[in-house]
Amino acid sequence: MKYLVILADGMADYKIKELGGATPLQYARTPNIDALAQLSRIGMVSTIPANFPPGSDVANLSVLGYEPSRYYSGRSPLEAVSMGVELADHDLALRCNLVTLSAEDDYAAKTMLDYSSGEISSSDSGRIIKTLQEKLNSSDFSFYPGISYRHLLVWKGGRGKELQLTPPHDISDRVVGEYLPAGSDSQALLDLMQRSVPILAEHPVNIERVKAGLNPATSVWFWGEGHKPALTTFQQRYGLNGSVIAAVDLVKGLGLCAGLNPVVVPGATGGIETDFAGKARAALDELKGGQDFVYLHIESPDECGHQGSISKKVWSIEQIDSQVVGLVRQELDSLSDIRIMLLPDHPTPVAIKTHSRDPVPYLVFDSRQPCTEGPNVYDEEAARAGLHVHEGHRLMDFFIQGFPE
Known about the structure:
Layout: E1 2-8, H1 24-27, H2 31-37, E2 40-45, H3 56-63, H4 68-71, H5 76-83, E3 92-101, E4 112-114, H6 122-136, E5 141-147, E6 150-155, H7 187-201, H8 204-211, E7 219-226, H9 234-238, E8 242-245, H10 249-257, E9 261-263, H11 276-288, E10 293-298, H12 300-307, H13 310-330, H14 332-335, E11 338-343, E12 360-366, E13 388-389, H15 394-401
Helix pairs in contact: 2-13, 5-10, 6-7, 11-13, 12-13
């Protein structure tokens, strides 16, 4: 038996007036998902346990079968693993976003205009992070370049439990004053954020971006703190060898910590526009090449939700249907025995431009045992008629070992 998870990050949403009261998933043209749904088990899963923030780190940990209360150690350490950055036991890793803030002199009076600096390219952001390394690195702090706007700060001996940090995508269009780093260890981080502003204001990359009508990176923003993770491997948990296909360091790092083989797909961006078909082909190649399990992560719908774009989110879902699910359906006969699970990790509703903790719909197809009972429609409303998995990490157990009767 082969196992394929298609994780459409942030795909679930709320009903939208402009779509006639439908969600983007309900509104989008998805003939391939619709056909698969006719033969699949469909239900809801709660991926965010109580007392955990509704982040992709917690949600993907749950979907992969790891109980967050036991295994969660923070978001950024997973990204550090993906980037090949070695963390000592007492190092604190933090996500370093390049963001666009408004131009007020008082840092606290600035507004979060863009958490991604216009989905800045990795080549542009790499030049910026190199400059920050030169000007702000110290015996305590080190900067490391990542992908697009997503980078890493390592704080030697930093104490994450004393910090209160806010994800920048949670405060789009808000004045940042009440969301600045807080807690007894926060001042050093706030100092770095403030010191980054004059450095970035005169950086050649930003001068070029402004001339081109693009959002400049005007500040760094720190969040997602955590220490070195320790997971049992996926092979130890389920007896399966597997691969992870992801263009974002968080999911790639989580896969590496779980012992999954990372697969790089040229043209996969971690943004709205990505090589959807290339990722699907890579997943199929891994399964045909001997792997038992593939975790295929697609970031696109999440970014659409964060940007508050209804049209882009509908488009993204339609690309997943045609270029990912459609390609997989074409290859079903050559794969023989396979189970496929399609789901988001969490909703990213366009109305709020950030994650919510609502349960999400899942679809599980088994080529050996097609299921014609239940909703047979895959969306947020229809899935409520199916089995609700309240402990999100149990869904992977059911997917691999079988659902309870």
